[in-house]
Amino acid sequence: MALLELTGLSKSFGGVRALREVSFSVDEGEIVGLIGPNGSGKTTLVNTVTGMERPDAGRVRLGGRDVTGLPAPSAARAGLARTFQSPRPFLHMTALENVAVGALLHAPRVADALRAAEEVLALVGLAGSSGLPASALPSERRKRLDLARALALRPRVLFLDEVMAGLNPSEQADGVALVRRLNALGIAIVYIEHVMKTVVTLCPRVVVLDHGERVAEGPPAEVLADPRVVEAYLGTAGA
Amino acid sequence: MTPGESPPLAHPAEGLAPAGPRASRMARRRGLWAAAALAALLLVPFWLSDRYVMHLWVTFYLFAALALAWDLIGGYAGQLSLGHAAFFALGAYTPVLLLQRWGLSPIAGGVLGAALAAAVAVGIGSIVFRLRGVFFAMATIAFAEIVRALLLHFRSLTQGDNGLAIPFTGERPLDLMFRSEAPFYVIALGLVVVTLAVTARMRRSRIGYYLRAIRDDQDAAESLGVVSRDVKLAALVASAALTALGGTVYAFDIGFINPDSTASLGLSIEIAIMAIIGGVGTLAGPIVGAGMIVALTQITNAALGSRGGASTALYGLLLMVTVLLRPAGLAALWSRPTGRRGERRGAA
């Protein structure tokens, strides 16, 4: 049985239908790519599944449990974590304290949360920055910090929203290795990305969104050759 | 941190996380210093014979406690409340009425006033925390104005505008009636200590981490499992109860309360300004701010007379200068910014 199951998920903002009956599922331990042009609804999908937005219709099930429309804190408790497209660190807290906020979900005692946060920082390669205020971190390390906070929740499914954007090729290679490492820990990952090379490397299966609709699903090589996907990215010839 | 990149109420509260045995030894030494300072302050009434000067100390302590209590919600949670006078008024009126009607000791009455303020905070918090930013501030003003209007309206209970006087009927400690000002000195100082203890504990607790996270980015905090409404509510309840205790101390120190002296917008603003000028989100900030404003009021009143609002204009000026040049508050002038210390530790 699928770990995460989206069925007919829809969300509109005023007249804009950001998600139209999107269905797909993620298995235990899987990395699923979620791609599509800008404005195709990828981030809306993350927001709707993790509780920042409420879906208008459709269902979300996690491990067989209905988690549709749960508010964000409950979604986090249920095992859904996400990073933000542009990182949103708590600027006036140190890197360690940022991660401790997440770790407090499972370790109510501050001392335990700080210890757990230290381990997570080491895992994402930020051990050396733990005492720095988040405001002092450059953008690449802010992305790692966002990721560390989400990991501290010990999620079952992790949504990575364009973690590679703006990284140079060597940083991207590090990023790919890190995502693999997290996946090896047993965390299922929904990998949203524009950097296609990393999608092809990481994801055995991808889902393509266009105008809020799922237009294709399958192995990346097949999907990227699909005329509907080419059309979504490049527009119709002669249009 | 440069003033340019931080919002007006930003402050460097980083680096609260303790670091090893050295930190605990430092904490112990700091505890000893605090105990010594407290003992010294407790000796002040013995060589201070001037009742007026002693009353100034009480005023300073009272405002320091109020500013510290305000900081729990205004500073740590970053929710600009301009309605705290309402909690102060509840803390002032409740024990006075209970004493006059049923002869209840204001010690119990004060606790009941604090409980009432806490209960009101739960109710009002669940409404106003739906709002953010300016709208939140406006809603808190409206709330306090409603309390003031109610105090004016129910004349049979509160005497409206005329206020309630607490006649002095001799030295009765249980009724908080003392011939000397010294007991109020001790009581007000005690309130500061209690408020400081609550704040210090909150800072290092789970709620303290959550509050600072909410202040920086509420949506991100919620995505990490923080139920922001409950956390803000907890801070508001603590803040309201402590503010109410301040109202009780004020009422029995002065011996007279009316809606204008306890529930006015002016008082709400004054409390907030003290914390902001001194530096929100720090232990020293609100105390420094209270000291500055109380001293300033004395100086301007002596030099210019209390009429004409010269001191009010001066607060305004001081507030503008502080927010523009020192958004972290005046207390940050003589404490090393913790951020930089953190950097060095990180680099090593």
Short recap of the structure:
The complex is a heterodimer of chains A (about 240) and B (about 350). With about 240 residues, chain A is an alpha/beta fold.
Notable features of this structure?
heterodimer, A: 239 residues, alpha/beta, Rossmann fold, 2 domains, six-stranded mixed beta sheet, four-stranded antiparallel beta sheet, 9 helices, 10 strands, 25% strand, B: 348 residues, mainly alpha, two-stranded antiparallel ribbon, 72% helix, globular
Taking the sheet with the most strands of chain A, its summary is: 6 strands, mixed
Distance between the amino and carboxyl termini of chain B: 21 Å
Roughly what is the average pLDDT of chain A, rounded to an integer? 91
The amount of helix of chain B comes to over 70%
- Which shape of chain A, going by the Cα principal axes? globular
Q: Cα-atom Rg of chain A, whole angstroms?
A: 18 Å
Look at the structure and name the CATH superfamily of the largest domain in chain A. Answer: P-loop containing nucleotide triphosphate hydrolases
Class computed from helices, strands and strand pairing of chain B? mainly alpha
The CATH topology name of the largest domain in chain A reads: Rossmann fold
Helix content of chain A: 25-40%
Mean pLDDT of chain B: 83
Element pattern of chain A in H and E: EEEHEEHEHHHEHEHEEHH
The total count of helices of chain A amounts to 9
Across the major sheet of chain B, the strand order is 1-2
Could you name the ranges of chain B where pLDDT drops below 50 across 5 or more consecutive residues? 1-14, 336-348
How would a textbook summarize the main sheet of chain B? 2 strands, antiparallel
The general outline of chain B is globular
Number of domains of chain A: 2
Structural class estimated from helices and strands of chain A: alpha/beta
CATH class of the largest domain in chain A: Alpha Beta
Gap from first CA to last CA of chain A: 42 Å
Describe this entry's structure for a reader.
- The complex is a heterodimer of chains A (239) and B (348).
- By secondary structure, chain A is an alpha/beta fold.
- Chain A folds into two domains: 4-79 and 155-234, Rossmann fold (3-Layer(aba) Sandwich); 87-141, no CATH class.
- Chain A has nine helices and ten strands.
- In chain A, strands 6-7-8-3-9-10 form a six-stranded mixed beta sheet, sandwiched between helices. In chain A, strands 2-1-4-5 form a four-stranded antiparallel beta sheet, with helices on one face.
- In chain A, helix 3 (95-103) packs across helix 4 (110-123) and helix 3 packs parallel to helix 5.
- In chain B, helix 2 (51-76) runs antiparallel to helix 10, helix 3 packs antiparallel against helix 4 (106-128) and helix 4 runs antiparallel to helix 10 (228-254).
- The model of chain B is unreliable at 1-14 and 336-348 (pLDDT under 50).
- By secondary structure, chain B is mostly helical.
- Chain B contains 15 helices and two strands.
- The radius of gyration of chain B is 20 Å and the shape is globular.
- Chain B has helices at residues 20-47, 51-76, 85-102, 106-128, 133-153, 155-158, 182-204, 206-216, 218-223, 228-254, 259-262, 265-278, 284-304, 310-325, 338-347, and strands at 164-165, 256-257.
- The A-B interface holds A 50-52, 71-73, 76-77, 81-82, 84, 88-94, 96-98, 100-102, 104-105, 108-110, 113-114, 128-133, 135-136, 149-150, 152-153 and B 1, 5, 10-17, 19, 204-206, 209-210, 212-213, 215-217, 219-228, 339, 342-343, 345-346.
